[in-house]
Amino acid sequence: MSLRVLFVDDEVSLRSAMSRLLAILEPSWEVVTAGDGEEAMALLRSMPADAVVSDMRMPKMTGDKLLERVQEIRPSAARILLTGHAEASTGLRSISVAHRFLVKPCAPETLIDAVKVSCSLRKLLSSSELADLVGGASALPSAPAVFLEFIRELDKPNPCMQRIGSIIGSDVALTAKVLQLVNSSFFGLGRAVVSPSQAAAYLGLTTLRSLVAMVASCSEVGRAVPSKTVEELQHHSLAVGMLCRNIAQGSYKARCSGEDALLAGMMHDIGKLLLPDPKARDESHAEAGAFLLGLWGLPDQIVEAVAFHHRPDEAPSAQVNLATCVHAADAIVRQREGAEMSEQAREILSKIGLLDESGELLGEYQAA
User: Fold this and answer.
1) How far is Cα 165 from Cα 205, in angstroms, rounded to an integer?
2) If we measure between CA atoms, which residue out of 173, 168, 235, 220 comes closest to residue 195?
3) CA distances (Å), 215 to each of 142, 167, 170, 181, 188, in order?
4) Are 286 and 307 in contact (CB under 8 A)?
5) How far, in Å, CA of 309 to CA of 323, rounded?
6) 85 — alpha (psi -120 to 50), left (phi > 0) or beta?
7) Which among 87, 83, 85 is positioned nearest to 100, based on CA atoms?
8) Which listed residue, 108, 191, 275, 339, has the most CB atoms within 10 A of its CB?
9) Residue 166 CA: distances (Å) to CA of 17, 69, 122, 211
10) Whole-angstrom Cα distance, residue 71 to residue 319?
């Protein structure tokens, strides 16, 4: 993979060392370096970059401020922030502009993997315009009623963490942002967190309050998507997520956990929140959603399921994969909503032994 990577750090020795190591480990890459934000911006104005990797603490312009400007002029570039102090407050300031967070000292191999994953996702998108739209997004719209419920619970004298986790779990956009933060290097969990309730408990009330304020302030990203459409997508996505979990936990040889299935089902149509044009929503939402979630660092199996939920046979994972479970759940819920089930969906349901059990599964979801 031939890439142009801009590495920004005010320490000359670190820039030189990283440049040499990347040249050895990835000789096909073009590594360009800059000593501060202004120099980096001047370079970006004269040439495109596939990824921008910046230190957080720099004189004149901090890393999050630089990435904010990168977001404006090169929105499709992967934006990766390096920090030497693993503090949640830093993550909250930069979560709207950085796609990935890596803690210094960062091994070159770790940086290479982050750049490769972020840039490979760009291939999912059919046009540079779509890449710019998705890459430039900092937050997704959330249903106003959910925001109000969330804030009301937070403002209680003794807010219930279990209740807060349930509210987050009922909202696609909030779930995505909370999981982006808790899975970042700032928290160093060493394992992927896919449950919004677990994430809420780990982040705590102070961090959650700041996160909600940030998401609310950035929700203009989805202003072109009608509120009614957002509400409908939320309801549909929750139904698919819950049914997808039922499928994965049943005896259907699905090689995925119930939590992964629930999250993948909830996230499967998240790309529609970025696409104001109804035709584009139908044609490109799977790729757009996968690109965004991948840039945000959500687990690979979730990204794959979102990307391939309309064509699960093309997903890299073998046999009955997570994308298959999402496709099956989506088809059953859409049929309940009045849509005719496609022949492809019938074939997939038949292949995994669910065609004759779809009504029973739907009843399990409705009773949940």
Assistant:
1) 11
2) 168
3) 8, 15, 15, 12, 23
4) yes
5) 5
6) beta
7) 83
8) 275
9) 47, 35, 33, 16
10) 39
Task: Single out the residue of 50, 98, 94 nearest to residue 76, CA to CA.
Answer: 50
The answer for residues whose C-beta is within 8 angstroms of residue 243's C-beta and 6 or more apart is: 265, 329, 332, 333, 361, 362, 364, 365
CB 143 within 8 A of CB 151: no
Rounded Cα distance, 46 and 315, in Å: 37
Based on the number of CB atoms within 10 Å of its own CB, is 247 exposed (0-12), middle (13-18) or buried (19 or more)? buried
Helices 322-336 and 227-249, axial angle in degrees (round to 10): 120
User: Residue 334 is which amino acid?
Assistant: R
Look up residue 274 and give its two tokens.
Answer: 């970025």
Judge residue 99's burial from the number of C-beta atoms within 10 Å of its C-beta, 0-12 exposed, 13-18 middle, 19 or more buried.
buried
Task: Give the separation between CA 24 and CA 17, rounded to whole angstroms.
Answer: 11
Reported pTM: 0.71
Radius of gyration of the chain from Cα atoms?
Answer: 21
Q: Please state, in angstroms and rounded to a whole number, the distance separating the CA atoms of residues 68 and 189.
A: 27
Dump pLDDT digits (tens) for 225-275: 777 777 788 789 888 988 888 888 875 566 677 888 888 898 899 888 888
* E runs forming strands in the chain: 4-8, 30-34, 51-55, 78-83, 100-103
Amino acid at site 200:
A
Q: Which residue has the higher pLDDT, 344 or 123?
A: 344
pLDDT band at 367 (very low <50, low <70, confident <90, very high): very low
In contact, 181 and 203? CB cutoff 8 Å: yes
- Nearest Cα neighbor of 328 from 275, 257, 259, 268 is 268
